[in-house]
Write a structure and sequence with these properties.
Keywords: Membrane, Signal, Transmembrane, Transmembrane helix. InterPro entries: Cell_wall_metabolism_enzyme, Dup_hybrid_motif, G5_dom, M23ase_b-sheet_dom. GO terms for molecular function: metalloendopeptidase activity. It holds the Pfam family Peptidase_M23. This protein is α+β, with helices and mostly antiparallel strands. The protein folds into five domains: 151 residues, no CATH class; 71 residues, no CATH class; 91 residues, no CATH class; 76 residues, Resuscitation-promoting factor rpfb fold, CATH 2.20.230; 109 residues, Glucose Permease (Domain IIA) (Distorted Sandwich), CATH 2.70.70.10. Helix content is 35%, strand content 30%. Strands 17, 18, 19, 20, 21, 22, 23, 24, 25 and 26 form a ten-stranded antiparallel beta sheet that branches. Strands 6, 10, 13, 14 and 15 form a five-stranded antiparallel beta sheet that branches. A hairpin with a 4-residue loop joins strand 21 and strand 22. Helix 5 packs across helix 6. The radius of gyration is 56 Å and the shape is elongated. The relative contact order is 0.06. Bound molecules: zinc ion. Zinc ion binds next to loops.
Length: 539
């Protein structure tokens, strides 16, 4: 993979000369060799393991056969020892000859040498015999030592980057990881530039300690690439990139100094903090050197005195992005109320309400960040869900839905009327020449029900109208030529346009309008003309 890329690099674009061609052939052999070596290295490591296993097997078999082969080994041992024994006895004899010759006053060296060569000639078969064993064993030993040494040595790649030596690594994957790491750390890559670089590799053998880890290699590459990118701090406002400076520590100081005045008087207040109004973010990392500007230039952009090109291509200028605000964290308790609940009760008379449970307020602990700009509170932000200290209790009311006449909204009139104030039969005045209905005396607040199914034609307090004498009243159109009126009510329970069912509560007894006491003025109309109620319904 790496080789393919490098080949492209080594073919000159402008000239194909014989020299370049030969160079190419040379590189081809070099890479074939490099990869062969790699292959052999791995093959050799496998083979060594196999040979070791085999050797253990052989040792075991040798031990097994030792007893059977003992006579053979004894003969071998004898063959190996024989020359030495002969040499020892020969040397003893030579010393004897030399001593005797010296005592006789002759030439001891000459006699000794002559005796030695005679001995060698006489026993040369023994020497050859011994060598026949020794030479192959020595050769095998040398081979094993060499192979073991080669396999144990550390093969490494010497990395050269942009013509500069960087270090030794165990294999290409270390570089690939370092490269990916650097790409990962390069910030703001979307501004256009990208970083692609392949190193030069040379296979070599080095000491294990000389190998670089991926982290060390990353650091070295960054060092050697400082012309391209370097460690710096970028500033983002509301995720928009504003600029980057290498003066990271001074940048942090300058930003902190802007917040300093708002801490005055709150130095020991843990609940008080100062922050930028905008989301100002510092991102340390690797940045392309070409994008790095001075701290002053960056601050000018941030204060809006120098233009900034935004990612969408617009130019931003004249807006101080470094406005600060103070935030105070406060905890307080607030009273709460629970949503009232109404339960329909089909066994309770329609319209009756029974309070089942009284409401009681709850208490919550609320934690808020109170934001101040120029000393003015501008916002309160709840920092977390409130803590409930006392649970609020809701009012629970049972609402009666029992209707003795059954029926549902929209039913046509039955044509028969029910008495509109069921429990009260007392009549203070019947219809007469001067009075159009029946006045049913009843206690204040007593429920008045619809005399038959129909639609509410009027539900009004009648103030300021010709009907003011009726006070609060309801008129129901029954759709069959009949209409009924219920007047002087204290409260109306229905609205104009609503369908009502026979027996449904529609109002409560009162004394509104022209009235001197609590009663329900009940009136029946036939085709728009009032009539005597007694003709149609009696209590
Ligand atoms: Zn009346």
């Amino acid at each position: 993979m790496a080789a393919r890329k490098r080949w492209r690099r080594y073919i000159p674009d402008d000239e194909i000369s014989v020299r370049a061609f030969l160079h190419l052939i040379g590189r081809l052999f070099y890479y074939v060799g490099l990869h062969s070596e790699y292959f052999l290295l791995n093959f050799g490591r496998g083979a060594r393991a196999a040979v070791l296993a085999l050797w253990h097997g052989v040792c075991w078999m040798l031990a097994l056969g030792a007893n059977i082969l003992r006579p053979f080994f004894a003969a071998v041992w004898e063959d190996l020892r024989a020359p030495w024994r002969q040499m020892r006895s020969g040397l003893r004899n030579i010393r004897q000859v030399v001593r005797e010759e010296r005592e006789a006053g002759g030439s001891p060296a000459g006699k000794g040498l002559a005796y030695f060569f005679r001995g060698v000639l006489a026993y040369k078969h023994l020497i050859l015999h011994g060598l026949a064993y020794l030479l192959p064993a020595a050769a095998l030993g040398v081979l094993l030592v060499t192979v073991d040494g080669v396999l144990s040595s550390t093969f490494a790649l010497r990395v050269e980057f942009r013509g500069e030596f960087v270090g030794f690594i165990a294999n290409e994957s270390v570089y690939d990881a370092a490269h990916a790491d650097i790409l990962d750390r390069i910030q703001n890559v979307d501004t256009g530039e990208d970083w692609k670089a392949r190193p030069e590799y040379t296979l070599t053998i080095v000491d294990q300690a000389a190998l670089y880890s991926q982290g060390e290699l990353t650091d070295r590459i960054i060092e050697t690439s400082s012309a391209e990118f370097r460690e710096a701090t970028g500033v983002y406002v509301n995720t928009e990139f504003i600029g980057v400076t290498a003066d990271s520590a001074a940048l942090t100081q300058a930003l902190e100094a802007l917040k300093e005045p708002l801490y005055e008087g709150h130095e020991n207040d843990d609940s008080w903090r100062v922050e930028f109004q905008q989301n100002v973010e510092l991102k340390p990392g690797l940045y392309f050197t070409s994008t790095i500007i001075t701290l002053d230039d960056l601050l000018a952009r941030l204060h809006g005195t120098a233009p900034v090109e935004l990612s969408d291509g617009n130019i931003l200028v004249g807006w101080d992005m470094l406005g600060v605000q103070a935030v105070q964290n406060v905890t307080r308790t607030v009273e709460t109320a629970a949503e009232p609940q109404v339960i329909n009760d089909p066994e309770l008379e329609w319209g009756r309400e029974v309070v089942e449970q009284e409401a009681s307020p709850g208490l919550e602990e609320v934690n808020e960040d109170v934001v101040y700009i120029d000393g003015q509170e501008v916002q309160r932000i709840q920092t977390r869900e409130p803590t409930v200290l006392v649970e609020a209790v809701p009012q629970i009311t049972r609402y009666g839905t029992y209707n003795p006449y059954g029926g549902t909204a929209g039913d046509p009139a039955t044509g028969e009327f029910t008495w509109p104030v069921p429990d009260y039969k007392g009549i203070s005045r019947w219809a007469s020449r001067y009075h159009r209905g029946a006045d049913i005396t009843a206690r204040y607040g007593t429920t008045i029900v619809a005399a038959d199914n129909g639609v509410v034609e009027v539900a009004t307090d009648a103030r300021g109208t010709a009907w003011w004498t009726y006070g609060k009243f309801v008129k129901i159109d029954h759709g069959n030529g009949f209409a009924t009126v219920y007047a002087h009510c204290s409260e109306l329970l229905v609205q104009q346009g609503e369908y009502v069912v026979k027996g449904q509560p529609i109002a409560r007894v009162g004394s509104t309008g022209y009235s001197t006491g609590n009663h329900c003025h009940f009136e029946i109309q036939v085709n728009g003309q009032w009539t005597d109620t007694r003709r149609y319904v009696m209590p």
